[in-house]
Each structure stands twice: as C-alpha cells, then as structure tokens.
Write a structure and sequence with these properties.
This protein has 260 residues and is an all-alpha fold. The chain is built from 6 helices and no strands. The longest helix has 125 residues.
C-alpha cells in the first residue's frame, strides 16, 4: 500500500485526476466490517472508476512499451553499426591504411553523434514505459484491494442480515412462548376458578341435603300419619294418644268414653 501511495501521488493522480487521491484514501481507511449498504454501493462506483482507468492505463502502457521497444531497437542497431565501424577503423589503422581509417573515423563520429542524440530519447521512452507500467500495476493493485474489501463487506453485511433474521426468528419464538405461557396461565386460572365454583356448588348441595334431612325429621316428629306402621304399632300409638282402639271390646270402648 505504501508503494501505491508513493507512485500514485507522484504520477498516477495527474492521470487519474484529483479524485484519485480521495478514492485511494477512502479505500485505505474504509472498514468493510462496519460498512453499510450505501457505502458498499459507493465503493462499487469507485471500483468502476478504478477499473476503467486501469483499462486506459493498460492501453497507454502498451503504446509506451511499443515506443520504448522501437527506440531501444533503433538505438541497439546504431550501437551495433558503431561497433562494426570501430572494428574496421582499428583494422585500417593496423594495416596503415590512413585514407580508409580517415573515412571510417568520419563515419563513426557521425554515428556516435546520432547515438548520443538517440540515447536520451531512448531513455525517455523507456522511463515513460516504466511509469506507465507502474501506474497500471498500482491501479490493478488498488482495484484488487477494493474488490477484496468489497467482498468482505458484502460477506459481513450478509452475515449481519442473517444474524438479524435469526434474531427476529428467535424474538418471534420468544413472543410465541410468552403468549403460550400466558394462555397456560389463563387456563390454570380458569381451572382454579372452576374448582372454587364446584366447591361452592358442593357446599350448597350439602346444605340442601342437610336441610332436606332436617325437614324430613321434623315432618316425622310432627306427623300423626300412621302409614308404614303395622297394626300393633298403630294400636299402641292410638292407645298412648287416648284414641279408642279399633280392636278394643265394646265394654272397653264404653269405659273409655266415660272417662273425663
């Protein structure tokens, strides 16, 4: 990341524009673990800008590389020619052929002048190609960093959504459990109330039965009804109550009637 800052500040931002600085700073400081959906969408737009610029940088690098290769090839050709002329010059000097040596020396000097003028041009083309490659490579790196952070942010956001869904499901289950408990509590209350009512009804029934028994007993005590008694019991009851016995003789009944 340090290399990215160093190169993009010195070269890349001029090509990417002032927005390049803010994009790079944003990507470096961006925390995917706390990213919102809006931040993710913004980073996707920034990634689109970076990849678009990376495509342009690749085309520029290819052009600069072709120019640098052509300049290097031309320089190498001139250098090979200069070396060839220099070898022939040395041979002519060794043979003592001054005319030939003079002619070769003149041509060699002209070729060396060309090489001296070609060298800075060749070096400039090579430097531009190197810068174009570095710019392209760091844009690719920046795009990769952004893509990795985006992927992590999406994963974290999806995890957050799943956690929220699970939490909501658990909340609904808890609510359902609470409602069930409340219903069960209501049923128990109703059951308890029913038990109280039944107990009250049983008490009333017992009271009613007791009152009925009391009434029956009172009725029996006060009743002169002879139903249900045999003749002997009836006669005895009649006798103790002063009633004439139906089985008594005529003299007994007459004597009874005379009593005051």
């Amino acid at each position: 990341m340090a290399g990215m800052f160093g190169f993009l500040r010195s070269f890349g931002f001029e090509k990417l524009g002032k927005v390049g600085d803010s994009i790079t700073q944003k990507i470096v400081s961006w925390d995917p673990e706390t990213a919102s959906q809006a931040e993710i969408e913004e980073m996707i737009r920034d990634l689109d800008k970076i990849t678009t610029e990376a495509g342009k940088a690749r085309a520029e690098y290819d052009r600069e590389k072709a120019e640098a290769d052509a300049a290097q090839k031309n320089y190498d050709k001139f250098m090979s020619a200069a070396e060839l002329l220099n070898n022939r010059l040395e041979e002519a000097q060794a043979l003592g052929d001054e005319a030939k040596a003079l002619e070769l020396n003149k041509s060699l000097n002209k070729l060396l002048e060309d090489l001296e003028s070609l060298k800075p041009e060749m070096e400039r083309e090579s430097q531009e190609a190197s810068e174009a490659k570095a710019y392209h490579d760091e844009l690719i790196e920046l795009a990769q960093v952004t893509a990795d952070k985006l992927k992590k942010a999406k994963d974290m956001l999806e995890k957050g959504r799943r956690d929220m869904q699970r939490a909501e499901i658990e909340r609904q289950r808890a609510v359902a459990r609470a409602e069930k408990s409340q219903k069960m509590a209501g049923l128990k209350t109703e059951t308890s109330s029913l038990g109280v009512a039944l107990a009250a009804m049983n008490r009333q029934a017992e009271q009613a039965r007791a009152q009925a028994a009391s009434s029956d007993m009172k009725a029996k005590l006060l009743s002169t009804d002879r139903d249900g008694h045999d003749d002997i019991i009836k006669a005895a009851l009649a006798e103790v109550s002063g009633e004439p016995s139906k089985t008594a003789s005529v003299s007994e009944r007459l004597a009874q009637l005379k009593k005051k």
